[in-house]
Each structure stands twice: as structure tokens, then as C-alpha cells.
Amino acid sequence: MKTNVELISTRVYAGRLKDRENLNNSSSGGAFTALSDFFLKNGNAVVAAIYNYENHTTEFQMILDKDQRERAKGSKYMQSKPGGIFREAYRWLMDNSGKKMLFVGMGCQSDGFRKFSEIKEIRDRVYIVDIICHGSPSPKLWREYAESVQKKDGKITFLTFKDKRNGWKSPTAYVKVNGEEKSIKDYVKVFYNRCALRPSCYECPYATTERKTDMTIGDFWHIEETIPDFYDSNGNSLFLIHTNRGEELFEKIQSELDYRSSNTTQCWQANLEAPTQKSEQREEFWNDYKKKGIDFVMKKYGSVPVKTKIKNKLLKIMGGGTQKVVPIMLITPKGGQHNELEAA
Ligand SMILES: Cc1cc2nc3c(=O)[nH]c(=O)nc-3n(C[C@H](O)[C@H](O)[C@H](O)COP(=O)(O)OP(=O)(O)OC[C@H]3O[C@@H](n4cnc5c(N)ncnc54)[C@H](O)[C@@H]3O)c2cc1C
pTM of the entire structure? Predict the structure, then answer.
């Protein structure tokens, strides 16, 4: 198919929203808000993943206004369901000639949509963004976890994996039940310990800086070391631009951002180099899950070891910080770390 989209050598930017409120309620630096704002204010459409509080799944939806877009914000650590979104997006574009669309999904989902858009000859009307990904846990595991919480405590009315009350580098993960916060750090620990991801995630071909979407967004981890004078403790997005249209799109949103030009060395992180490695405990985890259920595996694989807890208590009493429980793949080549798991 003939298209005006051309691959370019990857360009890299660090950036974040100028608007502090929107920065604070975004997972990283608010790249998704800047991008989706641009489409919505011009009467165009956005496709992104929204959490459904009735069936506890994350589903792709067509988004046409900012209220609905707010519901798409936030990283949901479970595999999302595209459902019939490709066909729905196509139909919308056919019914709205002259309009454009932004599609935002994980690497595998966005590349699938790119191929679909080429086959359907709509590539020039869609802007395709993918998200850097550690891997997606089984959606069934999260659903059972959420159902177990609800059985014990009541209906979940709010979910966040990356609340920034302790800063972007130490996200807090919780659900709200009966107006009260309940930590879900056991689930987050299981997410990071590489047992529960989909089998295909361990062989992900999108764990690279070279992709065929227009743009990749994610966290600009370690920016405090690589571009210290640009670091903001409230969040920093990474933008990888892959096509001429991605570059055009980044120019359109620049006025909403503070940004810096960067490079692939400064933005290095594990999941831009290789897929997450399968845990040696994966088989044992799923056997335990099948035999003993969700509460058992959360307790066995999702709790902080007693030794670490005691050490942390002692460190606190002595006036020091806490010992970090850092997942293997978040350790940088230089040995630097970020403490997402500890604070979750
Ligand atoms: C499972 C998962 C693993 C991730 N792993 C990494 C990582 O290893 N390194 C890294 O740099 N960044 C990772 N991220 C991305 C990061 O957490 C942010 O989502 C991303 O930087 C966008 O932040 P924001 O501030 O622009 O967006 P926000 O305004 O917070 O919006 C989040 C965006 O993510 C989409 N989204 C959220 N959950 C899902 C889902 N389950 N499926 C599809 N789309 C979803 C939303 O639709 C929205 O477009 C991961 C995200 C997820 C969901």
C-alpha cells in the first residue's frame, strides 16, 4: 500500500507536561495527555485502554472527549483486551471522512493496529503510539485478585498502580474500597518478579528502541543520572520517534511540554534492550496458583521477606532509609536502581 509514512532513524526526547496537575495524575511525564489533548481538541478520535470496574478488565475504547480520556489515564498492570476495537476504529474513520485518529497501546497491540491500518489503507489517517512494556500479567490473575479483595473488603471504586504522593520514582499502588485505601503491593511484587507475565512477553520482539509505530512513550528512568538538570521528581516521559509523522506529531505537542533532545544511551532501560526474562519460579507459581488459588500465591510470592522487613524496621529506628527490594530487571548497567517495587 502507498503511504506517506516513512521510517526515520530513532529520535529521542525527554519531556513532561507543563501543567503540574495533569503531570501529577499521569503515570510518567504525561505524554498520553499531551498527545490525546491534541487530537480531541481538533474533533479527532483517540483509542486507548480503560479500566472497567464492573468486570475488572482493561478494555480498549474509542475516546471522543476529555472526560472519557481521563478514564484512560494510568498504567494498568494486566493484559488489556482489544475486543472489536480495530473494526470499530475503521468504521469510525469511514463514517468521519477527513478526521484522524490516535491509537495508543502496548508494543504488540500497536504494531498489530499498524499492520491492520496498512491492509485497510487507513495508515495515513492514524497516528500510532506504543508504550514501553515490562510485560503484561494474565488478566485472569488480576480479576481473581480484585474479586478476592472485593469478597473480603467491598467494592473497588478506584485503582492506581502509580500514584505519585511519594514522587514518580516511588509509586504507590492501591485500590479504594469503602472510601479507604488498600495497598496492592503484593500484586505489584508478583508483577515485577517475572512469574505471572503472558508467555509471549518473555519473547517480546518489541523490546527495542527500533519500532515501526510513529512513536514510543514510557518512563525516562535514570534521568536524574543522565540529564540531572532536567530531572523532575513528579515525572518524566521518554519519547522515541520512529517516523516522519511521529516527528510531526511531537512538534504539535511541544508547546504543552518542557522537553530536551536526548539519545538512546541516556534513555537506556532493560525493556528497550531485551524482553523480561522468565522467572525460574514461573512453573512453580502457576502450579501453586492452580492447586491453592490466588490468596496463596499472593502471600507466597507477593510478600517482602521477613529478613528485609526486620532490617527496614532497624534502619528506621536508627534514622536511616529503608532497604530497597529491587526487581532484577530494573537494575541499570551502572548499578543504579529505581525503587518502584519498594514503595508500591
Ligand atoms: C503493563 C505495563 C508495563 C509497563 N512497563 C514499562 C516499563 O518497563 N518501562 C517503561 O518505561 N514504561 C513502562 N510502562 C509505561 C508507563 O507505566 C506509562 O504507562 C507510560 O509511560 C505512559 O505514561 P503517561 O504519563 O504518558 O500516561 P498516562 O496518562 O498515565 O496514561 C497511561 C497510558 O497507558 C495506557 N495503558 C495503561 N494500561 C494499559 C494496558 N494494560 N494495556 C494497554 N494500554 C494501557 C493508557 O490507555 C494510556 O494511554 C508500562 C505500562 C504498563 C501498562
Answer: 0.93
User: What is the edge-to-edge ordering of all strands in the sheet holding 45-52?
Assistant: 57-63, 45-52, 101-106, 126-131, 215-219, 237-243, 7-17, 257-262
List the residue whose alpha carbon is closest to atom 39 of ligand 1. Answer: 76
Work out which ligand 1 atom sits closest to the CA atom of 271.
8
Atom of ligand 1 nearest to the CA of 51: 38
pLDDT tens, residue by residue, 213-241: 999 999 999 999 999 999 999 999 999 99
Burial environment of residue 95 by CB neighbours within 10 A (0 to 12, 13 to 18, 19 or more): exposed
Q: Which residues line ligand 1 (CB under 6 A)?
A: 26-33, 48-49, 58, 72-78, 80, 104-106, 131-134, 136, 217-219, 237, 269, 271
Could you report the per-residue pLDDT of 184-205, keeping only the tens digit for each? 999 999 999 999 999 999 999 9
313 Cα–ligand 1 center, Å: 33
Question: What is the distance in A from the centroid of ligand 1 to the CA of 131?
Answer: 6
Question: Taking the mean position of all CA atoms in its chain, how far away is CA 288?
Answer: 28
Residue 49 Cα to ligand 1 middle (Å): 10
Q: Write down the domain spans for the chain.
A: 1-344
Q: Whose CA is nearest to atom 16 of ligand 1?
A: 218
Q: How far is the CA of 310 from the centre of ligand 1 (A)?
A: 33
